[in-house]
Amino acid sequence: MPFQLSQKAFNPIDGNDEDGISVIRKKYCSAAEAAADGKEGTNYYVLEFSAADLQALSLMIQPDPLPGMSGHAIIPAINCATRDTPETQAMMDNVRKLAFEAHGPLPGKKPRFPTQT
Q1: Dihedral (C-alpha) 51, 100, 13, 90: value to the nearest 10 degrees?
Q2: Residue 117 falls inside a structural domain
Q3: pLDDT, tens digit, for every residue of 31-64?
Q4: Backbone conformation region of residue 29, classed left if phi is above 0, alpha if psi is from -120 to 50, else beta
Q5: Using CA atoms, how far apart are residues 72 and 62, in angstroms rounded to an integer?
Q6: Beta strands in 1-117 (DSSP E)
Q7: 30 found inside a domain
Q8: Residue 69: inside a domain, yes or no?
């Protein structure tokens, strides 16, 4: 049976995705490195999509490099402000239907609580 994505997949997260949902370009980062950016003690699945497939859905992938994550990018059309609109809901449904390769489970490595100095 094929891996099925949750309805929560691609749902923007408050405080994180105001400018668009985050993606990481494979050219700059392995699946294990992408998962390591998640919280320690949690396992993640990293989904690999074709940029051409996303662009065929009229979704722009905008580079948005971050410190330590030069391959970070965003999809501005799917963001917190628009997530409940019928148009954005349809976009998220269409992305969930695309072909993808799943990598994982892979461990997150960021500390759950900020370290105190």
Answers
A1: 80
A2: no
A3: 999 999 899 999 999 999 999 999 999 999 999 9
A4: beta
A5: 9
A6: 21-24, 43-48, 62-63, 72-75, 101-107
A7: yes
A8: yes
Q: What is the pLDDT along the chain (117 residues), one digit of tens a residue?
A: 467 888 889 999 999 999 999 999 999 999 999 999 899 999 999 999 999 999 999 999 999 999 989 999 999 999 999 999 999 999 999 999 999 999 999 999 999 876 666
User: What is the C-alpha end-to-end distance of the chain, expressed in Å?
Assistant: 48
How far CA 57 is from CA of 53, 71, 95, in Å, comes to: 7, 21, 8
Residue 116 placed within a domain: no
Closest CA to 23 of 56, 53, 46, 57: 46
Q: If we measure between CA atoms, which residue out of 8, 66, 2 comes closest to residue 34?
A: 66
Report the chain's C-alpha Rg in angstroms.
15
Find the domain containing 101 and state its range. Answer: 21-107
Phi then psi dihedrals of residue 32, to 5 deg: -65, -40
User: How many structural domains comprise the chain?
Assistant: 1
